[in-house]
Task: inverse folding
């Protein structure tokens, strides 16, 4: 059990949010923000996104746009000046981004009732009603585990992988099928080495863990990596894969912040307990493994 108080995770993320708001006109380095929060870079983005509801880059873009909206509402500066102050090269590009954020153009925004304009600016705030906190199915202590994996990368256009997962699992399953290794596979897993943020490339690893005593050679295009031994909090998700983010968020935002636990320097992964080709989406079972100290 870690020694962190439940509020500490919230405080650390809020410290980063406040820092970003004070320095939004400066270059913001993700590793430096992770260090400010006291997290390793590999975990910082996941925890930040779970708490805030969006990645670091998206958050920076949003707070800059919220400031621009406040300037439009409270100042008489020309839209061109506000656009340049917000980091946009032209009023046209600023206007397009502004409308995507608020649904109206900068000129239309200035003409809104102040109460409605304020609602548009601050509509992102969370609903802070108390909810029941999801608990892990179990806390497991695992040894070092070898994983045969195939890797693919994707330029993220949404928070979910669209092509890299199919490509990686296609490579892995083709190999397992060609070597009749299906019955030797103990677990089918997905490992996420990188933060997943829209607009950036991320790696996806599709992996197989075999029964004890069986470790086939890795062919071209596949390799082995080690899932480091230690404690893991296991959260069970029942339902379609496209709703997995709900359990990830419940684990990282709600449970971790109230558990007193700290994440250790290992990469979270998903274990697909049953076969998507044999059960309907609502019966799919996925165990999410969160590494804890």
Result:
């Amino acid at each position: 059990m870690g020694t962190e108080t439940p509020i500490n995770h919230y405080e650390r993320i809020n410290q980063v949010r406040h820092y970003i708001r004070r320095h939004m006109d400066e270059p913001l380095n993700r590793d430096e923000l992770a260090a400010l929060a006291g997290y390793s870079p590999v975990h910082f983005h996941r925890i930040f996104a779970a708490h805030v509801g969006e990645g670091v880059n998206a958050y920076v873009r949003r707070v800059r746009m919220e400031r621009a909206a406040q300037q439009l509402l409270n100042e008489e500066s020309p839209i061109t000046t506000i656009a340049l102050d917000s980091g946009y090269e032209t009023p046209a590009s600023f206007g397009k981004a502004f409308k995507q954020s608020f649904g109206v153009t900068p000129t239309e925004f200035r003409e809104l009732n102040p109460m409605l304009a304020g609602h548009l600016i601050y509509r992102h705030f969370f609903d802070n009603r108390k909810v029941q906190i999801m608990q892990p199915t179990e806390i497991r202590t695992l040894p070092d585990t070898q994983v045969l994996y195939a890797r693919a990368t994707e330029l993220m256009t949404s928070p979910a992988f669209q092509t890299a997962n199919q490509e990686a699992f296609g490579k892995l399953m083709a190999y397992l099928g060609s070597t009749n290794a299906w019955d030797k596979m103990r677990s089918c897993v997905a490992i996420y080495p990188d933060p997943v943020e829209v607009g950036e490339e991320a790696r996806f690893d599709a992996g197989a863990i075999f029964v004890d005593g069986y470790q086939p050679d890795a062919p071209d295009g596949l390799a082995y990596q080690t899932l480091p031994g230690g404690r893991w909090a296991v959260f069970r998700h029942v339902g379609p894969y496209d709703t997995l983010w709900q359990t990830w968020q419940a684990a990282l935002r709600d449970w971790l912040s109230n558990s007193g636990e700290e994440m250790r320097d290992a990469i979270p992964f998903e274990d697909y307990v049953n076969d998507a080709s044999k059960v309907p989406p609502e019966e799919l079972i996925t165990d999410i493994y969160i590494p804890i100290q």
Remarks:
- The chain has ten helices and eight strands.
